[in-house]
Amino acid sequence: MLILGINAYHGDASAALLVDGQLVAAAEEERFNRVKHSAGFPRRAIEYCLEAAGARIEDLDHIAIGRNPRAHFADKILYSLKKRPSVAFITDRFRNMLAVRHPKAELAAKLGLDRERIRAQSHNVEHHRAHMASAYFASPFDEATIVSVDGFGDFVSTMWGHGRGNRLEVGRRVGFPHSLGLFYSGLTQYLGFPKFGDEYKVMGLSAWAEPDLADKIRRVVIVRDGAFELGLKYFQHHTKGIAMTWEGEPKYDTINSERLIDLLGPPRQPGAPMEDRFKAVAASVQAVFEEVYFTILETARKLTPSPRLAMAGGCAHNSVAAGKIRPKGLFEEIFIQPAAGDAGISLGAALYVYHQTLGHPRKFRQLHSYWGPGFPQSQIEELLRAQNVPYEVMPDPELISKVAAKIRDANVVGWFQGRMEWGPRALGNRSILVDPRRVDMRDMLNARVKRREAFRPFAPALPVERVGEYFEQTYPDPFMTKVYRIRPEKRAEIPAVTHVDGTGRLQTVARSENPRYYDLITEFGKLTGVPVLLNTSFNENEPVVCTPKEALDCFLRTKMDVLVLENCYLEKAWVNPTLASE
User: Fold this and answer.
1) What is d(CA 460, CA 146) in angstroms, rounded to the nearest whole number?
2) Which CATH superfamily is domain 377-581 in?
3) Burial code of 267-289, b = ≥16 C-beta within 10 A, e = fewer?
4) CATH superfamily of 180-336
5) Would the pTM of this model clear 0.90, i.e. be above it?
6) Quick check: 581 pLDDT over 50?
């Protein structure tokens, strides 16, 4: 049985394919069309998933799309009658609704096929039910509390529930116009980060100040009755609506009202200096976000007294908050899948149909994130020869030894292997790797490759069995979804991955899931005594590279020193000695 899951006409469009209940392929559309957070219809991601399974569109049994225009329809009508939003807002939402209501027709149109060729049954899965399914049904838990928190989807922003076996049940929800995700997005705009998905910048900035403005921010979002409400006078989404683009790069209008400026003062303009008061706003936003976040989790735990938590939605990517869940004693075990944001809707919709709709028992457990395209060694060598790029082919032991020594000697290494990661994090297959012991490595990476804000931290990767030596928590996190405190005595040892507040967003690496990456980290540890690498995504202000050609292009236009493409090794000095010497 083949089930295609789709997230379409929303940010982070994606596709995922189940074969007899097992995930065989998943990818975001942005990795193919090179548009960050690409919205629209994930045509190329769908084509990839079918190709990975050796399947045709005619072979699909079910198509699941993670939106259900019929969900909470009465609430939508009541809102429209009471608030009377603009005609443009209603028209925009109506077009979007029609696009997701008939996924089979959309699939045929976008792939240029006769609709009669598609025999699959189509399903609309409510947005947050898809999120919940992506968290619970992919988790290792047979029973768990499930929480989904994001901006909005199908008129809901937050949903609690319980999973047992192959079923999930919804216990409570928070609906429009109240949204914790929208609160964070609105303050992200206020701080001068206007792009879709910029919220992680505020999270990084929050460590640089104290939450001195928390009392003011508590007027913007208010804890109430085990959940929360927005201070609606500070927003305009419920009165004027927020126009969004549904194709290409997602964009949306200003969320905030003038009353927010009255409360906090003039907003920061994009690119303007980062004044201390903006740092204080960021710290306060994160602090109040966490107050609401943990209220939600406490309520969920009371409704569903399970010590295990499966969590999804865009707010699940707030790794600073996620890293504090276990120390607070709320849950003993936590699963946040690597594509917890809206990209994961495609996987969740497919899993929901397989288990909840069709009643099949669970088979899939997500142990790794490597579900994207991979490329054979022969294809890589053909590319390098065609580009007239000198290279060497090395067996793994020689390659790993050489690359570990290069990293030790302060070289910046582009590391490309295996299948591309699913989700926003590079986890060892499309990564840039450097020495975390050098305090200057953060500035070097920003100047030579990443070109991003100096306040944003870089992530440490280390073998799972060594976590307790460097971090105050030992719970594994293979998907880089949590921030832990680094042991005080170890912070000077790995300064390039130690954030200003003494924390790090770690990736734990098991040899069983990524042996070459594990062996590289281990070899670096043997050479230096420090079994930790700084791991950042292989890109330069673009989506993470997908193909060997994209990796080569990124390597050539930046000041990386070494590139590894599977077993092919090359140095910048071999290609451009002038650039390599700068």
Assistant:
1) 28
2) Carbamoyltransferase, C-terminal domain (3.90.870.20)
3) bbeeeeebeeebbbbbbbbbbbb
4) ATPase, nucleotide binding domain (3.30.420.40)
5) yes
6) no
